[in-house]
Write a structure and sequence with these properties.
Helix content is 31%, strand content 20%. It contains 13 helices and 21 strands.
Length: 557
């Protein structure tokens, strides 16, 4: 950024790359020429430089120097003001070139098309650019060294309010878009949090946009804006509860590629009203925070990062071509976000989408006097939740009473010993004893001892001396049974692991036996074919006369 001699702002972009030779510069300024056919390039038609500079301002002058077999300097002008002022129907781009002369240690003019042609181009450059002399042009190379390119865009366009579209004054170390929203007050914390987030700031801050422009910065590469280096910002580092998900799109008849998507909640969720995937193509950002198939309310605070090299960007590098591959990617990202929301939303404070299971140790059922219905309902509840088989609470209504009375169906030790765990010991079942009447509570017996374990409801009954009514309704909590249940569950998991290992061995053995079976079947078919061949040969020989040299003479075999 700098002032032009006439006091107007101009935008300057400079790099210290390899630079362009006179031939390359003419190709760059020629409409429709493209030399980007490598696997690492993004451009398509060769119009990127022209369209971008003409979108920013009316006039663009480019300086480029290159050191190959010779040291050259070239200057070209792409000017809407020049074309409009001269009434040209064709696009004319004046270019002048210079070459270093070792003998005089100065740059001399390259006049491959004659001195008149060079003088005409130089005159046009000096008339329609902000530089008035040839020395002013050559002085622009002083800070460029032996290689590099400098682009100066002047006469920047204005918006509808007759203000420059680019704001150079709000921040001395940044270039902003005019009309950028103001920062909310300190007390509006949520609004301020959303406003200051990079997902919103990149839309009007060049520094923020440049910080996320590249997925990985090459070594010795940096971006300097307004004299200060742009620090790269990795969106992945802003994610919490991050997960990496592999997506394998079919890009050809038999070609698949692996796309790794990092997805998670942004720091600040659930207060952030932001959702979207940042999609890169060959290390360059194409779609920042793209709301792929977003649903209202769901996905809030979720962000993802991926590099999609299997789809093609548009010529302006602001979107992708709407192909079938792109549509499949959009649907996959939508499903990915919804699945992540389903399992992780509660981690940042949202209400879980899935209904939580009933407590593991209880099954509460309201039943009538019909004990068979109670048993049936209990069996159904226990079948739905295998963990509830350890213990449960049944609410049964007494005859003539309105209160529900909880009957504790024993503890884990009362209902099953360690050997009674499913998968831990075969042919062992956990028995659930139901009382024949509400007043008679059967005690569950241990299989390995004849001692009886009284339930807490029965103890309360014995203490009060009332065989017909219990106290107030309450849920009996499991205390000491938890450790036994955990031991049982661990034994079940161990048994499952052993079964899985045994299953793996059996599968390997089955595969080996199947291989042997196929081999024997092949041998059997071979022997059958051989036998049929000999049978046919025998039949043919029986029908053919054979001449014999023996005394038996001619005969049939």
């Amino acid at each position: 950024m700098k002032y032009s001699p006439v006091g107007e702002y101009s935008l300057m972009v400079q790099d210290d790359g390899g630079g362009m030779s006179p031939e390359h510069l003419r190709h760059c300024l020629s409409f429709g020429f493209s030399n980007k056919c490598t696997n690492s390039s993004i451009g398509q038609y060769g119009n990127g430089f022209k369209t971008s500079t003409m979108r920013l301002g009316a006039d663009t002058i480019i300086f480029s120097c290159r050191k190959a077999n010779r040291l050259t300097r070239s200057v070209g002008l792409l000017s809407y003001t020049f074309l409009k002022g001269t009434g040209c129907n064709d696009i004319l781009v004046p270019v002048v070139d210079y070459e270093f002369d070792p003998s005089s240690r100065n740059f001399k003019r390259i006049m491959d098309h004659g001195e008149k042609h060079f003088s005409s181009n130089l005159s046009t450059l000096l008339r329609w650019s902000q530089f008035s002399t040839e020395d002013d042009l050559l002085n622009q190379f002083e800070d460029m060294g032996c290689h590099g390119t400098k682009i100066v865009v002047s006469k920047l366009w204005l918006n509808d309010a007759d203000e420059m579209e680019l704001d150079f004054t709000t921040d001395d170390e940044d270039i902003m878009m005019s009309g950028a929203p103001k920062i909310p007050e300190e007390r509006a914390k949520v609004k301020r949090l959303n406003h200051m987030h990079i997902a919103n700031r990149f839309r009007y801050s060049l520094r923020v946009y440049a910080s996320i422009l590249y997925l990985r910065l090459p070594e010795h590469f940096k971006v300097i804006l307004c004299g200060r280096t742009v620090e790269p910002h990795h969106i992945i580092k802003d994610l919490i509860y991050c997960e990496c998900i592999k997506y394998r799109p079919q890009v050809g008849i038999s070609v698949q590629v692996d796309v790794i998507t990092s997805i998670g909640f942004l720091k600040g969720a659930p207060n952030l009203d932001i959702y979207g995937f940042s999609v890169y193509h060959r290390n360059r950002l194409i779609l920042p925070f793209w709301a792929a198939g977003s649903e209202r309310g769901r996905g809030r605070g979720i962000a993802g990062v991926l590099e999609a090299n299997f789809i093609q960007p548009t010529h302006d590098k602001q979107d992708f071509e709407k192909t079938e591959l792109f549509q499949r990617l959009e649907m996959r990202l939508k499903d990915m976000a919804m699945e992540y929301w389903k399992h992780h939303a509660h981690l940042v404070g949202y209400r879980p989408l899935t209904k939580s299971l009933r407590p593991a140790y209880y099954a509460s059922i309201a039943a009538t006097n019909d004990n068979s219905s109670v048993a049936q309902a209990t069996a159904t509840a226990y079948a739905r939740n295998s963990r509830a088989k350890a213990s449960g609470v049944l609410n049964s209504r007494f005859n003539g009473g309105n209160s529900l009375n909880p009957l504790h169906i024993g503890a884990l030790r009362a209902q099953m010993d360690y050997g009674a765990c499913p998968l831990a010991r075969k042919n062992m079942r956990t028995s659930l004893y139901m009382p024949s009447t509400p007043q008679q509570t059967e005690l569950c017996k241990r299989r390995n001892s004849g001692s009886m374990i009284e339930t807490r409801a029965q103890k309360r009954h014995n203490t009060n001396g009332d065989a017909d009514h219990f106290g107030s309704v309450n849920v009996v909590e499991i205390g000491e049974e938890r450790s036994s249940l955990l031991i049982c569950q661990n034994m079940m998991l161990k048994a499952c692991s052993e079964l899985e290992a045994a299953g793996q061995i059996l599968r390997s053995k089955a595969d080996r036996l199947m291989g042997e079976l196929r081999e024997w079947q092949r041998k059997g078919r071979s022997l059958t074919d051989e036998l049929e061949f000999y049978h046919g040969l025998s039949a043919i020989q029986r029908r053919m006369p054979i001449t014999s040299t023996s005394s038996l003479g001619v005969g049939w075999i």
